């Protein structure tokens, strides 16, 4: 069997998105800073980020339907083109000193919508590009790609803003253009023809498919709760670090180490997912957070907190690999886009609620109290995950096909 390193189409897809994600993350970190520079309003910065998140949630479910209705390669191409044009227009406006808040809000909406379209198309295409036996490895490598892109782009974004307000967006436009060119040469085997129904009916079919299967419904719940509690915990830790006088440089290292843990975890995920049962892999993430989260109360050094973050992120890619591989193999090709759309909306909703919850906790409780409350919430969910009969009966990889 041809290894993934020699799979032409997987290399094109992986490489094009590795480039695209670096530019995207560079502009993402720069966006609120540039909005603040242009408008002088912190509220405007928050508005732009909120519009991006809302666009992803609003387009998430319809995007899954479109990924199942349309040619998936074309969906990915149009999504890359839309992002390239949007950020290029902002780069030109900033260069000419003509950027306005409505323009920046519109760009944020386009970026969020395009990502909501791209992700289901990519996820649904993956099982048609790589063999089933290599799907788990491909999923874990995609996770590593995202973590590396986040780390590299975040680090690059600050330097690019310093070079000029328009520079991060020009670089982002270039990376999306390069990704577009790479995807032009991608070959995705056509999907079997499927009966078309009214759009709303197909959207409901996707929801019924996910919610009607206990193992998918429960794993969606796991993903939502984990993301919500950890997002809240992360914000509480940042606030706690600032209150304890941790230097900004060390706080930056803390965030970077979270990405390092994700990269290392993604690289070892194929081996761990082969050795652990699905229930062990999923419960392992929750137990790692349960055991490590309270330790933050005793840590006042940013570097040690970064090491703690790395440990907390280490097992997440393994659980993600197990769950995603199972779901893609068990879902008919005609429904894979909608599966991805539903899961992305679930995770995105939790990621939006988590920081709000963390902000409220940080405001109402002392730093240590907020940390312990988040840790307690994670511990309760961990117990439920450990004893849940559906998760305990989750089929192993060798019986998924």
From the structure above, extract its key features.
single chain; mainly alpha; 82% helix
Concise structural overview:
This protein is an all-alpha fold and 401 residues long. It has 15 helices and no strands.
Flag low-confidence runs.
none
Overall mean pLDDT stands at 88
- Give Rg in angstroms: 21 Å
> What does the overall shape look like?
globular
Please tally the helical runs, counting DSSP H or I stretches of 4 or more residues.
15
Q: Which sheet architecture does the biggest sheet show?
A: none
Distance between the termini: 18 Å
What is the element string, with H for helices and E for strands? HHHHHHHHHHHHHHH
The number of E-state strands comes to 0
Give the secondary structure arrangement, pairings included:
Layout: H1 8-39, H2 42-69, H3 72-95, H4 101-129, H5 135-163, H6 167-184, H7 199-211, H8 214-243, H9 248-275, H10 278-292, H11 302-313, H12 316-330, H13 336-364, H14 367-387, H15 389-392
Describe the structure.
With 401 residues, this protein is an all-alpha fold. It contains 15 helices and no strands. It has helices at 8-39, 42-69, 72-95, 101-129, 135-163, 167-184, 199-211, 214-243, 248-275, 278-292, 302-313, 316-330, 336-364, 367-387, 389-392. The model has no long low-confidence stretch (mean pLDDT 88).
């Amino acid at each position: 069997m041809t290894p993934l390193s020699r799979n032409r189409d997987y290399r094109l897809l992986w490489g094009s998105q590795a480039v695209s994600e670096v530019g995207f993350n560079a502009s993402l970190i720069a966006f609120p800073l540039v909005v603040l520079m242009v408008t002088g309003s912190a509220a405007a910065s928050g508005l732009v980020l909120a519009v991006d998140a809302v666009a992803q949630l609003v387009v998430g479910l319809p995007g899954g339907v479109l990924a199942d209705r349309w040619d998936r390669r074309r969906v990915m191409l149009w999504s890359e083109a839309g992002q390239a044009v949007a950020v290029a227009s902002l780069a030109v406006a900033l260069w000419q000193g003509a950027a306005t808040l409505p323009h920046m809000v519109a760009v944020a909406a386009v970026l969020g919508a395009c990502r909501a379209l791209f992700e289901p198309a990519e996820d649904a295409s993956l099982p048609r590009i790589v063999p089933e036996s290599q799907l788990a490895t491909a999923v874990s490598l995609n996770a590593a790609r995202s973590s590396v892109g986040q780390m590299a782009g975040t680090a690059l974004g600050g330097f690019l803003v310093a070079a000029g307000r328009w520079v991060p967006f020009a670089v982002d436009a270039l990376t999306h253009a390069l990704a577009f060119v790479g995807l032009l040469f991608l070959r995705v085997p056509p999907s079997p023809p499927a009966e078309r129904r009214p759009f709303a009916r197909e959207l409901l079919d996707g929801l019924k498919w996910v919610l009607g299967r206990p193992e998918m419904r429960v794993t969606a719940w796991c993903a939502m709760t984990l993301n919500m509690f950890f997002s809240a915990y992360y914000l509480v830790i940042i606030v706690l670090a600032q209150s304890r006088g941790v230097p900004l440089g060390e706080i930056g290292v803390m965030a970077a180490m979270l990405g390092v843990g994700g990269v290392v975890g993604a690289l070892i995920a194929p081996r761990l997912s082969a050795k652990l049962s699905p229930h062990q892999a999923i419960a392992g993430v929750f137990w790692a957070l349960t055991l490590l989260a309270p330790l933050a109360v005793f840590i006042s050094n940013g570097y040690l907190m970064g090491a703690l973050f790395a440990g907390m992120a280490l097992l997440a890619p393994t659980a993600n690999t197990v769950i995603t591989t199972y779901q893609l193999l068990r879902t008919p090709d005609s429904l894979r886009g909608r599966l991805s759309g539903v899961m992305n909306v679930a995770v995105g909703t939790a990621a939006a609620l988590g920081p709000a919850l963390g902000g409220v906790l940080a405001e109402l409780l002392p730093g240590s109290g907020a940390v312990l409350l988040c840790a307690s919430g994670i511990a309760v969910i961990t117990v439920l995950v450990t004893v849940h009969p559906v998760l305990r009966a989750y089929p192993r990889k060798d019986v998924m096909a």
